[in-house]
């Protein structure tokens, strides 16, 4: 092999290492951006949910959280958005039934 070929190989390998570093950095940035977008969406959902439920103080937010964390409510929510969990089946359960079964009470005329 000639010196020029060896030099070209070394240069190409250096470029490849640089590109690999850039790719890894871009993947890390993409992952970080996706995590930040998810956190933002979750925070917005929490604010919207609290507003929709009229939870405007710490006590009512905690009550809302307790209602949402019940097994029946989680199963109903998963069913509604298509991420149904196989451990708590609730076929055909409506929102009012899920709320009543958790003791959440309240008036839900738009179910």
Structural commentary:
The chain is mainly α. It is built from four helices and no strands. The chain has helices at residues 3-53, 58-68, 71-81, 95-101. The protein is rod-shaped, with a radius of gyration of 26 Å.
Which SSEs are present, and which pair or pack?
Elements: H1 3-53, H2 58-68, H3 71-81, H4 95-101
What structural category characterises the helix and strand content? mainly alpha
Order of helices and strands: HHHH
Helix content: over 70%
The largest sheet is: none
Estimate the global geometry from the Cα principal axes: rod-shaped
Task: Flag low-confidence runs.
Answer: 88-93, 101-111
Question: Features of this protein?
Answer:
111 residues; mainly alpha; 4 helices; 0% strand; rod-shaped; disordered C terminus
In short:
The protein is mostly helical and 111 residues long. It has four helices and no strands.
């Amino acid at each position: 092999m000639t010196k020029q070929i060896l030099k070209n190989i070394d240069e190409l390998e250096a470029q490849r290492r640089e590109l690999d570093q850039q790719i890894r950095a871009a993947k890390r940035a993409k992952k970080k951006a996706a995590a930040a977008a998810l956190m933002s969406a979750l925070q917005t959902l929490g604010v919207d949910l609290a507003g929709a439920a009229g939870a405007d103080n710490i006590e009512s937010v905690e009550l809302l959280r307790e209602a949402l964390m019940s097994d029946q409510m989680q199963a109903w929510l998963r069913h509604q958005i298509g991420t149904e969990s196989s451990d708590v089946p609730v076929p055909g359960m409506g929102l009012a039934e899920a709320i009543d079964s958790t003791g959440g009470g309240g008036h839900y005329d738009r179910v």
